[in-house]
Amino acid sequence: MAFFGFKDFDRLSEVDLNIYRFFTANVDKVPYLRVRDIAREAHVSNSSVMRFIHKLGYDSFPEFKVSFRAEQQQAHPTNHQINFVTDQNFPTDIYEKIELVADRMQQADQVIFCAMGSSGALAEYAARQAAAVGFNAICVKDPFYPLVNQLKNTSDNLLIALSVSGKTIELLELLNNFINNEDVTLVAITAEPSSQVALMSRYVLGYSVPQQRIAKYYDLTTQVPALYLTEQLISTARRLAVQAGDHLI
């Protein structure tokens, strides 16, 4: 019972052969069509399509579609890999940079993860993870959050900005308040190491990834490399803190 291996063409009528030719010409489309869609596009009746399916040895159309899709994948295997993060995503000195930022994080009185849009969800996760292991960490996703006032009488703050493009206007305006502030050290985690966010920062944890946007405003770029960097940063800072005798979790 197979479509691609079918050889008994003598059993097929001219109508059956038309349906067969339609299937072979639309291999990628067939698994997503209904019987009436196939009938309409192949210029045959619904019952003709079902008779053809039964001649192939299938009891139902759903059974045929599942088998067709499986055969298609075996005949044309894809080259998908589960390598979400590889060395190619990062500069060669990335771990040295992580150590530098982690050392600064271990010494900071407060760590602020700051981001807008889809990066904001990652900033929130990073702040939660950092707080979970004992760091005084918060997340700022609101461009109008009064961070300047909150940090006015504080010192030794580490502000980590996450931005794929490094061009988010609201984030740039927020960071601009701290460029010349000696009590705030700016760090950028970005896919654009030459972007304005990176240029404003003392340390840059850069990565490379194809950027994807739809309808101009919706960023579909993967956050996996940035997630990897934040987790490496937090785990490294925790290790340094433990080595220094700090009582973290």
TrEMBL record:
Membrane-spanning residues: none
Protein name: RpiR family transcriptional regulator
Superkingdom assignment: Bacteria
Transcription regulation recorded as keyword: yes
Start and end residues of each HTH rpiR-type domain: 1-75
Lineage per the UniProt record: Bacteria, Bacillati, Bacillota, Bacilli, Lactobacillales
Domain SIS span(s) in chain numbering: 101-249
InterPro entries found in the cross-reference section: Homeodomain-like_sf (IPR009057), HTH_RpiR (IPR000281), RpiR-like (IPR047640), RpiR-like_SIS (IPR035472), SIS_dom (IPR001347), SIS_dom_sf (IPR046348), WH-like_DNA-bd_sf (IPR036388)
